[in-house]
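Now for a concrete sample entry.
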Amino acid sequence: MGLRPVDLARRAGVSTQLVRNYEADGILPPAPRSETGYRQYGPEHLAALLTYRALAPGFGAETASEIMRAVHHGDEAHAFRLVDAAHAALHEQRLATDAASEALAALAAEYVDEQPVSGPSLLVGELAHRLGIRPSALRVWESAGLLAPAREPGTKYRRYGPEEVRDARIIHMLRQGRYYFEQIKPVLDGLRRTGSTEALRAAIAERRAAHDRQTKAMLYGAAMLHELLTAGEPQGASAPTAPAP
C-alpha cells in the first residue's frame, strides 16, 4: 500500500512538512523514492509515525526521537534502556515531590508560628550561595513579583530579611519541583496573608496528579512501541516470560 506524505499527515493529525521533518530526523525509517523523486511511504512509516506521536507526550520529544532512531537501527536494547531511564527519572521526581512536600510543610509552619522569624539579613550573593543558585535567579524571582527585598540607603544593595529568606527557600523548593511562577505566587500570597497552606497543598496535589498523567501517557506510548516491535511476529511469540526465580 503506497502512502503519500499527506496520507500520513492526515492519519496522525500533523502537517506534511512535519512528516518530512520526522523522516529527516530519523523518527521515520528512510522512505524510498519513485523514479520521479516522490517519497514512497508504506504501512511501516505510518506505524512509526503513530508510535512516535504516542511516545512523545509521556517520554518527551527528545527521548521519543532517540527511541525511534534506536528501533530503526535495530538496537532494541538501547530503546529499552531509554524507556527504563525515563521511568526511573519519573520515579525520582515523585520521591523529590514527597521530600519537598515535607520540607515545605515545615517551612510553611513558620507563617503561623506566633514567634517572629529571626535571622540575619543577607545580600543577594549571600542568599544565592546559601540556596545554591545563581544571584540572577533571585533577581528573576523579584521581577516575577515573588520577592521584594529591601534596599540599603545609599548603595541600593538588595537586603533579604528573615522573611524574604524563608520565602526564597520556599520558592527554591517549588522551582526544584518544576513549579511555574504562576503556581508559586498564590502559594506565597496565601501564606503571607493568612498563613493558609491551602494553595500549597493544592500545588503539591497538582504536581502529583501531573506525575500520574505522565505515567499513563508513558504506558500508552510503551504499548504502541511494543506493538511496533512485535508486528509480524507469530501470535504468542512475543509474550513476555517471567524471570527465573
In short: The two ends are 46 Å apart (CA to CA). The chain has a mean pLDDT of 87.
